[in-house]
């Protein structure tokens, strides 16, 4: 499939990309190449192939879900730029 310069201009406009007129022929060729590659992919027989979310099978690392009492507020508040009376202190934004 071949993309014309007018179609490339329209695609650039829809994508909100500023493309100079002298760059349109190269953009049209590049888009045509992408579409040709997609047409090649459509020729691949994928019957019986399960969809996958990644190329390497891996299990997510999980931690044990345990209810705790916390007890480390001091460690968390030590990272705060301003903490008062055991809470994060932030500037007032509403009058």
From TrEMBL:
Its EC number is 6.3.5.-. SUPFAM superfamilies: Glu-tRNAGln amidotransferase C subunit. The keyword Transferase applies. HAMAP family: GatC (MF_00122). Heterotrimer of A, B and C subunits. Allows the formation of correctly charged Asn-tRNA(Asn) or Gln-tRNA(Gln) through the transamidation of misacylated Asp-tRNA(Asn) or Glu-tRNA(Gln) in organisms which lack either or both of asparaginyl-tRNA or glutaminyl-tRNA synthetases. The reaction takes place in the presence of glutamine and ATP through an activated phospho-Asp-tRNA(Asn) or phospho-Glu-tRNA(Gln). This is Aspartyl/glutamyl-tRNA(Asn/Gln) amidotransferase subunit C. It comes from Paracoccus seriniphilus.
């Amino acid at each position: 499939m071949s993309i014309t310069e007018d179609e490339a201009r329209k695609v650039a406009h829809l994508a909100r990309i500023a493309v100079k007129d002298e760059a349109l022929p190269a953009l049209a060729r590049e888009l045509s190449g992408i579409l040709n590659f997609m047409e090649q992919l459509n020729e691949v027989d994928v019957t019986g192939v399960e969809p996958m979310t990644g190329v390497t099978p891996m299990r997510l690392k999980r931690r044990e879900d345990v209810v705790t009492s916390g007890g480390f507020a001091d460690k968390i508040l030590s990272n705060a730029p301003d903490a008062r009376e055991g809470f994060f202190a932030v500037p007032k934004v509403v009058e």
